[in-house]
Amino acid sequence: MPPSHFIWYELLTTDVTAAQRFYSEVIGWTVQAGETPGMDYRHLVAPDGEHVGGMLQLTDQMTAGGARPVWLGYIDVPDVDAAVSAIAAQGGRTQMPPTSLDKVGRISMVADPQGAPIYVMTPTPPPDRAGAQSTAFSRTAVGHCGWNELATPDPDKAFGFYTGQFGWTDGGSMPMGAMGDYRFFNDESGMIGAVMKSDGNRPPMWTYYFRVADIDAAKSKVEANGGTVMHGPQDVPGGDYILVGGDPQGAMFALVGARTA
């Protein structure tokens, strides 16, 4: 089986219009209305015209059930139902059962064995995109996700789970002192992300780093538009800088980009 890929990124939020304004300013996305009847779903379009993700308005019923603003990633699989069964067999949980969406595909929200939520999806691409690979993840393209990072209490177990379920391979590791190793995930294109030990202050979670053209300009836009900078900018191997923050509705997000000044 060929490796799976991150093919879409989705923000669940309590105020989709305010979130649209914030991320358009910070990352430079334009936003288009989705086509699902009865659902306020908006597509995020990168500066190069590629659709990279979506925003979904949380309903009162969702928040009453415990839903909170959060970014989630979608991983493609050849068979959603089979993937959900395999994930459950490894100790994962189903949070939303497999569901078919017209002209979209079949999806399910699951949690890995440590509790980090993700979607699995078998997409139905539009006719003009049949056979095309999603470009939502790109290490270099502005407005795309440039890195996928999992923080979890048991990195070794999580590494085995994701490589076993999705066909990713070992890209090596980087020591991080008391936090242990930062272990890289590869697909056939190269490094796509990594897993690290969580600090115990937040639940297991994937963090998605969206690429911006200038990390310092993005930091200023985060602060000017009601967001919070929690960490950074900090330099990382390869010459980029990262920033982790919170948006005005409370979802944690991350950015990666160069320092141009």
Topology:
Blueprint: E1 6-13, H1 16-27, E2 30-33, E3 41-45, E4 51-57, H2 60-64, E5 70-76, H3 80-89, E6 93-101, E7 105-111, E8 117-123, E9 145-152, H4 155-166, E10 169-175, E11 181-187, E12 190-197, E13 205-212, H5 215-224, E14 228-235, E15 241-246, E16 252-257
Parallel strand pairs: 1-4, 5-8, 9-12, 13-16
Antiparallel strand pairs: 1-5, 2-3, 3-4, 6-7, 7-8, 9-13, 10-11, 11-12, 14-15, 15-16
Helix pairs in contact: 1-5
Structure commentary:
The model has no long low-confidence stretch (mean pLDDT 92). The N and C termini lie far apart (45 Å). The protein is globular, with a radius of gyration of 18 Å. It has helices at 16-27, 60-64, 80-89, 155-166, 215-224; strands at 6-13, 30-33, 41-45, 51-57, 70-76, 93-101, 105-111, 117-123, 145-152, 169-175, 181-187, 190-197, 205-212, 228-235, 241-246, 252-257. A hairpin with a 5-residue loop joins β15 (241-246) and β16. α1 packs antiparallel against α5 (215-224). The strands form two sheets. An eight-stranded mixed sheet has the order 2-3-4-1-5-8-7-6. It contains five helices and 16 strands. The protein is 19% helix and 43% strand. With 261 residues, it is α+β, with helices and mostly antiparallel strands. The chain folds into two domains: 6-129, 2,3-Dihydroxybiphenyl 1,2-Dioxygenase, domain 1 (Roll); 145-257, Roll (2,3-Dihydroxybiphenyl 1,2-Dioxygenase, domain 1), CATH 3.10.180.10.
